[in-house]
Design brief:
- This protein has 12 helices and 7 strands.
- By secondary structure, it is an alpha+beta fold.
- The chain folds into 2 domains: 2-167, no CATH class; 197-293, no CATH class.
- The chain has a 3-stranded antiparallel sheet with strand order 3-6-7, with helices on one face.
- The relative contact order is 0.08.
- This is DUF4123 domain-containing protein.
Length: 294
């Protein structure tokens, strides 16, 4: 809302002016010109470039404060050229299986069919997860007319914890035709990167919430790595797996007599939630039988 009440010159990235409701326009990501404000005499000539207006930049930083909510683009071709390009990358194609399930098991067979999904290129956290796994041709296609893009993701999504910059590759690099397309390998690499970046955050929170010693961290980190191999992909299922690891001991699924536990975890046709439900049932039944024997 503050963006609209200020003197910023901006356009919505995902909605055409006049086609969305007022609320939709206010909440949609915006492309903001940093070389002018609404008081600029030629504010509407967005196809032209002017020197960066430091006052506008300062107002932008004041607006976002400490939130990691801005992606900065450097584009000498001008704001209009950048705006047209960004509208062309609002959607990306990913494997049909990943689009429907929200994730992809590395062992899954994929059909080769793709589906378009929204690409939140205005989100620094999304860029921090996607950009490290794509090759130079895709980076060049993503940047389009821009020279570079600069962004600061949340600490959770950055191994360096620093501002990240992506520069348009130089040279004669063939750019893929059509929309940006992320392969099954890309999706799996993104999932693996996400798991690696999330792991210490999840483990530290689990240790703190359960009053445990930090010396247990390596055991729980290895548990999350195993959970990833079994197709678990989000914080909720990772935490559920950690609870099992704590309750039934390290490498609980490999212990003698728990063949069915491992079988459930390795079942590629079951969802993560179904796997965990079956594992819990097996372990509770094991405990019941043990107590019955006295």
């Amino acid at each position: 809302m503050a963006l609209f009440e200020g003197d910023f010159v901006h356009r919505p990235l995902y909605l055409d002016r006049g086609t969305g409701t007022a609320d939709q326009l206010r909440t949609a990501p915006q492309l903001v010109w940093l070389d002018r404000d609404r008081k600029h005499a030629l504010r509407d000539r967005t196809e032209e470039n002017y020197p960066i207006n430091e006052a506008v930049v300062d107002k932008m930083f004041a607006l976002v404060e400490e939130r990691h909510a801005v992606v900065f683009w450097l584009c000498k071709a001008g704001g209009d050229a950048l705006y047209r390009h960004l509208r062309t990358i609002n959607m990306v194609n990913i494997p049909e299986e990943a689009a429907k399930k929200g994730s992809l098991d590395p062992r899954d067979e994929v059909s080769g069919r793709f589906m378009p999904v929204l690409f939140r290129h205005a989100d620094p956290n999304v860029l921090a997860q996607v950009m490290p796994v794509v090759d130079r041709p895709l980076i060049k296609k993503f940047l389009g007319p821009a020279e570079s893009v600069v962004f600061l993701p949340d600490d959770k999504w950055s191994e360096s914890g620093k501002i990240l910059q992506l520069t348009n590759p130089q040279g004669d690099i063939p750019v893929p035709v059509g929309p940006i397309c992320l392969s099954a390998d890309h999706i799996n690499q993104i999932s693996l990167l996400r798991a690696r970046l999330e792991m210490p955050v999840i483990v530290n929170a689990f240790i703190a919430d359960n009053g445990l010693e930090e010396q247990h961290a390596p055991v729980f980190e290895k548990a999350i790595q195993r959970a990833y191999r079994y197709g678990l992909r989000d914080e909720q299922t990772y935490v559920a797996f950690l609870k099992l690891e704590r309750a039934y001991g390290p490498d609980f699924e490999f212990r003698r007599g728990r063949e069915f536990v491992l079988e459930h975890l390795q079942d590629r046709d079951m969802s993560a939630e179904a796997k965990l439900a079956c594992v819990v049932a097996e372990l509770q039944n094991e405990k019941f039988e043990r107590e019955k024997r006295g």
